[in-house]
Design the sequence.
């Protein structure tokens, strides 16, 4: 149970796994959110939606508009009425990070786990673990895109085999460099769709404007061999030509031989460009940062 002193920051039962079901889902308990948490959501939403209007991918922005969630922390049940109609996905409330196997099983069944608590005021610009703003604002809008929705289910299905082959860290890099930190070429202009980018004020701008960042063309094998960092802006990104590439990359390739060939090899260091590698063409003219 929560300690009494935590009651004041009751921003959605942070880290309270008491009462979670076997699949780690909990009730969202929307009525328990104090007004201050809805106000915090509105401020986060206003800032990020303004930045994403300029730097976010169209496939992400169209989903965000349909979710109509500027007014406060959304009721997941209301979201599910829209989401399930659009792509057969639904979001399920969870208290925080859940075991890999449980996570993959949810994705394989078109259930996206969304953390129910919101960050504290002092974490507005950065927090290590995902909260409801990262999970909902970052991940849910693009789940309304049928191609992305199909890919994420296929990713979930791929988890079991990766775990069985002791190559989960390689498969997780696919998620990291697309679902969390993916960029896409929008008619020659770099745009962001990864949840870790679009939910972060700093990284939304940095990911598409910083001139020193390595932005390579999407390549599943290169991604599965590339290390990543979890507590700083990324030093390298991968750029999709379109969302269909995600599905093709996952289903046209047999990951088994790739796991066998590379799982014992040290990962390619972050930010390192291999001989002969060229940035994605859309990255050759980084987006100019304008005051929004
Ligand atoms: N749990 N709630 C939650 N959200 C995640 O994104 C998540 C998780 N558990 C495991 C996990 N991600 C990753 O380790 C897997 O992608 C490998
Ligand atoms: Fe995430």
Sequence:
């Amino acid at each position: 149970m929560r300690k009494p002193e935590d009651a004041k920051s009751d921003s959605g039962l942070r880290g309270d796994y008491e009462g979670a079901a076997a699949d780690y889902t909990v009730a969202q308990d929307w009525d328990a959110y104090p007004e201050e948490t809805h106000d915090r959501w509105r401020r986060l939403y206003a800032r990020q939606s303004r930045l994403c209007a300029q730097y976010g991918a169209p496939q992400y922005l169209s989903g965000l508009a349909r979710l109509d969630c500027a007014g406060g922390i959304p009721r997941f049940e209301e979201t599910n009425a829209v989401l399930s109609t659009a792509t057969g996905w639904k979001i399920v409330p969870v208290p925080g990070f859940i075991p890999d196997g449980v996570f993959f099983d949810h994705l394989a069944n078109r259930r996206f786990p969304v953390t129910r608590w919101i960050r504290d005021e002092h974490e507005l610009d950065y927090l290590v673990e995902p909260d409801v703003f990262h999970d909902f604002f970052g991940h849910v809008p693009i789940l309304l895109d049928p191609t992305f929705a199909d890919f994420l289910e296929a990713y979930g299905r791929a988890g079991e085999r990766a775990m069985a082959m002791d190559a989960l860290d390689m498969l997780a890099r696919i998620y990291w460099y697309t679902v969390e930190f993916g960029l896409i070429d929008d008619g020659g202009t770099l745009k962001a769709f990864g949840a870790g980018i679009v939910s972060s004020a700093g990284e939304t701008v940095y990911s598409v404007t910083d001139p020193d960042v390595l932005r390579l063309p999407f390549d599943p094998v290169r991604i599965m061999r590339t290390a990543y960092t979890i507590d700083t802006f990324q030093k390298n990104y991968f750029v999709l030509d379109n969302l269909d590439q995600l599905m093709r990359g996952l289903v046209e390739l047999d990951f088994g031989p790739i796991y066998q060939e590379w799982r014992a090899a040290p990962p390619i260091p972050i930010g390192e460009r291999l001989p002969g590698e060229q940035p994605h063409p859309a990255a050759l003219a980084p987006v100019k940062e304008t005051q929004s």
